[in-house]
Design a protein that fits this description.
Length: 212
């Protein structure tokens, strides 16, 4: 029988505050996770997407507005006293929810209506397998997974507490993707400045882990 004293102590918010500034600190399933800052292509895709959505859905310029779009917000979800702490690459709240739920401070306890994670080989397991269930349990209604290496976008909607895959898009295509399907999104604008994969680079550790 295992000794109760051997049970691993859950990480706390103080562990997040004490983390090095050059790392992204999260608490996932009670465990502190420290990851490097995103690489260039990752940052470029997230920034480009955030700009496109901010213009049309936050500012309402060329789109319907009605949203608040944030880059890398710190979310405290599920248990106020002992939360899961996650940092999506992008998150969005419908304006009416954000205006009533946000009370200031450095983090957010109201689940967003949409999250987006930009994937890389090194972090895909964390983002897809570990964080997606947390978003579902918290009631986030939509999630996007973008993989710069493959120029792909996966779109999910929450249904009965589980993620329902709505669509998968690859390459330089124009799409309407929920919950932002009121406006067409040209995916080629996300990949425009990315270094192209080559046969030599696809098998290299530098390409898979550092560049993407």
């Amino acid at each position: 029988m295992a000794d109760p004293g051997d049970k691993k102590k859950r990480a706390t918010y103080q562990d997040v505050l004490d983390a090095p500034e050059y790392r992204v600190a999260e608490i996932i399933n009670g465990e502190l996770r420290l990851t490097p800052r995103p690489a260039g292509p990752h940052t470029r895709v997230a920034s480009k997407l955030g700009g496109l959505l901010d213009t049309r859905f936050d500012e309402g310029d060329g789109g319907p507005g009605g949203w608040v779009i944030l880059h890398e917000p710190e979310l405290h979800l599920l248990d106020a006293a002992d939360p899961e702490i996650v940092v999506p690459d992008l998150a969005g709240w419908r304006r009416e929810r954000f205006d009533t739920a946000w009370i200031g401070g450095s983090y957010f306890t109201a689940p967003p209506d949409w999250v987006c994670e930009v994937l890389s080989p090194r972090l895909e397991k964390k983002d897809r397998i570990e964080k997606m269930p947390i978003y579902a349990a918290a009631g986030v209604k939509y999630a996007w997974l973008i993989y710069p290496r493959y120029r792909s976008l996966e779109v999910f909607r929450l249904h009965d507490g589980k993620w329902l895959s709505l669509a998968g898009h690859v390459g330089n295509v124009t799409v309407r993707a929920e919950p932002f399907d009121a406006v067409e999104l040209d995916l080629s604008r996300l990949w425009r400045d990315l270094p192209p994969p080559t046969r030599a680079s696809e098998g290299s550790e530098l390409y898979s882990d550092e560049m993407y």
